Predict the 3D structure of the following.
Amino acid sequence: MAPCRALRRGIAAVSLIAFLPGCHHSPATKPAPAPPTAPRAAKADGELYLPRGVTREKVMIECTDGYRMYGEYVKRERPARNMPGVIFLHDFASDRNKWYPLNYLTGARGYAVLSLDLRGHGGSPALTGNPPTRYDKLTPEDFQKMVQDVRNAVSFLAMKRDVAGNLIAIAGIGMGANIALLAAAEPWAESVRCVILLSPGDDYHGIDISGAAGKLKDKRVYIAVGKKDEYSYSSTLKIRQLIKGPIEILEDESDAHGVQMIGKGVIAKLPYWLNESIMAPIIKEENKSARKSRSR
């Protein structure tokens, strides 16, 4: 096995142990080391470590204008309940694998995970029927369409029998963070209960968050940002002023940006954010039903 592949598998396996429910140290046990920095995404999907009991499927999401987004759908082989959905959006000039290993670990925890290659990115330009335009040739109109493309991704999850289509989270990095925020503010996004934003910006490629942030009254907003990442940090402060609903900000003292924030606390916080916003309502309803059954 190549050394780099072994390293990736080792890191992902260690992260998985910390991420799965029930895997906690007792007080007598030596404290676990701090979560490692997430590895860079592999170029080939076959090099990515898939946790045991988790399946992945390559999918194509049909957009409103006929464009097809390439994506990967990850979930448990035998989910114990209807799964909340999580959509992962990457940054400009990137692809869906930048969320590795968090996308796979989230699937292992009981969520239905959809990681996308946005227009002009990753494998999407090569799909049959799509223009071969890459990210560096996209027009302002193309970037605006990305927000509506997320609507088709939400519909993809909602149509799955084993997915709780009314409990969706959208996580984004950089440009993807802006897209996530704008999408969550759309009238059609009632099922989107929270957004997770890594290094958002006031305006990325014409995707401006100022008008949308104030509309998120009943959705949870989680932000991870480096305090020395001046543009993203100032943008985060602006979002905090505009948001009228619950918001939590994870601040790092460095200039870490985008995917670098995964290793700056996001890998540890994400399970709690998702549980609070989209898993807890399902468990609450299950407990309520169980109490009713016992009282009969």
User: Anything to note?
Assistant: The longest helix spans residues 266-295. The two ends are 58 Å apart (CA to CA). Strands lie at 54-62, 68-76, 83-89, 112-117, 163-173, 192-198, 203-204, 207-208, 220-226, 247-252.
